[in-house]
């Protein structure tokens, strides 16, 4: 049976934290201001990488002895132990800082750190530490406590050393806002590496993430107006069975370096990349603006950065959006069968786009696998059409008309039909009449 060790704080921290609004701004792809206010993501204390341990409480971990923290304060933890959980059960206004000073914890089926209550909890890695859960997680009453670090309160990870997490399910789970402002993180998880309900906000750090499903995941299944990811800087090496970076509402990236190998590299309703270096290898879509939230229109916006995308074979898209695409700057290189698949409007006013080694002046748009029909018209004077319309059970009921143009494309469908006409002055290529 575990022994219970109760620790009460000896000091009250004078530092305060600003309350951040949980209301997300409307996403307008053409707006000059940032979607997420870059000045309101972190407090001063969030960004401090060293704790003030002047009046801290120190504790050496022992096998089978849980730690219960019930008051605001700074707690320095050290030692190697098995079958131990560090509980934080503080008042709603309390801020608690856990300083990991060479901690090694192993648990069979329960979080190593479990935050039940408190205003905000900081986990500061002072010396290299390692936390792992090796077996299947068990629930705490109605709560599915399925992370090595599991928190119901705001959680901040920072520090000057490396924190290694190993989990049969998730690495870090936060039911509120999760922030990472510094330190190094090596996380191997059977499911997700970093998961939060309201937001994941990263100011910096080094991340090596190996996830069975998503590496970074922000989603609250009871409210699709929240769940965003904001990344200011950092170095990321990601391998994921599903998505590298996944958010319900917004992914906004201001900088950093990213090497992602995943089913989908980045997925959210709205994705804005202002800077950063990206190398993405994907077996589905590399960057996908999908309708995850009912509050926002799917939009992809590229204002800067250097993005290299290499796609797998088959029905894959380099950049896919169910809404609009805006490119104002940066360099985008896509290698693959389908470079862009955009359902809405396209605005390409700046930057460089390279498709399969060739720089392009307009965005090529692949519309594949459509189940509906195309009822429009393509008309030109002395132009040509070199694209492809491909569908499963679709039909084309429109008209191609040109002066001295040519049609060198292909219409292909499973059970489709072509009910329009093709007319030109001096045509070449295929013809329907």
Task: Give your account of this protein's structure.
This protein has 433 residues and is mostly beta strands. It has 2 domains: 50-369; 373-423, no CATH class. 1% of the residues lie in helices and 51% in strands. The strands form 6 sheets. The protein has a 24-stranded mixed beta sheet that branches. The chain has a 13-stranded parallel beta sheet with strand order 1-3-5-7-10-13-16-19-22-25-28-31-34, with no helix packed on it. Strands 38-41-45 form a 3-stranded parallel beta sheet, with no helix packed on it. Strand 36 (352-355) and strand 37 (358-360) form a beta hairpin.
Tally of strands: 47
Count of separate DSSP helical elements: 1
Report the sheet with the most strands, covering strand number, pairing sense and barrel closure: 24 strands, mixed
The residue-averaged pLDDT reads 83
Report strand %: over 45%
Helix content: under 10%
End-to-end gap: 84 Å
Number of domains: 2
Chart the SSEs and their pairings:
Blueprint: E1 3-7, H1 44-47, E2 57-60, E3 65-69, E4 73-82, E5 86-89, E6 95-107, E7 113-117, E8 120-127, E9 129-133, E10 147-151, E11 154-159, E12 162-167, E13 170-174, E14 177-180, E15 184-189, E16 194-196, E17 199-202, E18 206-211, E19 216-218, E20 228-231, E21 235-240, E22 243-247, E23 250-253, E24 257-262, E25 264-268, E26 270-273, E27 277-282, E28 285-289, E29 299-302, E30 306-311, E31 317-321, E32 324-327, E33 331-335, E34 340-342, E35 346-348, E36 352-355, E37 358-360, E38 367-370, E39 377-380, E40 384-385, E41 388-391, E42 395-396, E43 399-402, E44 406-407, E45 410-413, E46 417-418, E47 421-423
Parallel strand pairs: 1-3, 2-4, 3-5, 4-6, 5-7, 6-8, 6-9, 7-10, 8-11, 9-12, 10-13, 11-14, 12-15, 13-16, 14-17, 15-18, 16-19, 17-20, 18-21, 19-22, 20-23, 21-24, 22-25, 23-26, 24-27, 25-28, 26-29, 27-30, 28-31, 29-32, 30-33, 31-34, 32-35, 33-36, 38-41, 39-43, 40-44, 41-45, 42-46, 43-47
Antiparallel strand pairs: 36-37
């Amino acid at each position: 049976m575990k022994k219970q060790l109760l620790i009460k704080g000896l000091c009250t921290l004078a530092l305060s934290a600003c309350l951040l609004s949980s209301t997300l701004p409307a996403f307008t792809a053409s707006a000059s201001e940032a979607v997420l206010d870059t000045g309101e993501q972190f407090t001063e204390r969030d960004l401090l990488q060293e704790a003030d341990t002047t009046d801290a409480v120190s504790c050496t971990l022992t096998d089978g002895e849980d730690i219960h923290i019930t008051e605001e304060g700074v707690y320095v933890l050290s030692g190697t132990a098995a079958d131990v959980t560090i509980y934080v059960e503080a008042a709603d206004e309390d801020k608690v800082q856990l300083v990991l000073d060479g901690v090694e914890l192993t648990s069979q089926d329960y979080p190593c750190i479990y935050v039940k209550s408190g205003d905000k909890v900081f986990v500061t890695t002072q010396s290299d530490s390692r936390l792992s859960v090796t077996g299947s997680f068990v629930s705490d009453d109605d709560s599915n406590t399925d992370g090595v670090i599991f928190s119901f309160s705001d959680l901040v990870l920072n520090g000057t050393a490396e924190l290694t997490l190993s989990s049969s399910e998730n690495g870090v789970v936060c039911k509120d806002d999760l922030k990472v402002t510094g330190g190094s993180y090596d996380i191997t998880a059977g499911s997700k590496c970093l998961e939060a309900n309201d937001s994941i906000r990263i100011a910096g750090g080094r991340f090596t993430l190996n996830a069975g499903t998503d590496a970074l995941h922000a989603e609250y299944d009871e409210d699709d107006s929240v769940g965003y990811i904001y990344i200011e800087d950092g170095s990321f090496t990601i391998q994921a069975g599903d998505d590298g970076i996944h958010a319900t509402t917004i992914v906004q990236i201001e900088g950093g370096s990213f090497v992602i190998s995943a089913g989908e590299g980045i997925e959210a309703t709205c994705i804005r990349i202002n800077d950063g270096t990206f190398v993405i290898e994907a077996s589905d879509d590399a960057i996908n603006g999908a309708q995850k939230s009912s509050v926002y229109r799917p939009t992809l916006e590229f204002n800067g950065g250097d993005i290299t995308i290499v796609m797998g074979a088959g029905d894959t898209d380099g950049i896919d959006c169910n809404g609009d695409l805006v490119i104002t700057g940066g360099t985008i290189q896509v290698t693959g069968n389908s470079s862009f698949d955009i359902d809405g409007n396209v605005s390409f006013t700046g930057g460089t786009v390279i498709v399969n080694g060739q720089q392009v002046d307009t965005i090529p748009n692949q519309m594949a696998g459509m189940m509906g029909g195309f009822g429009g018209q393509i008309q030109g004077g002395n132009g040509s059409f070199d694209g492809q319309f491909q569908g499963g059970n679709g039909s084309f009921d429109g008209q191609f008309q040109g002066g001295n143009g040519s049609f060198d494309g292909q219409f292909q469908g499973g059970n489709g039909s072509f009910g329009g006409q093709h007319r030109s002055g001096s045509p070449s290529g295929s013809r329907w009449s």
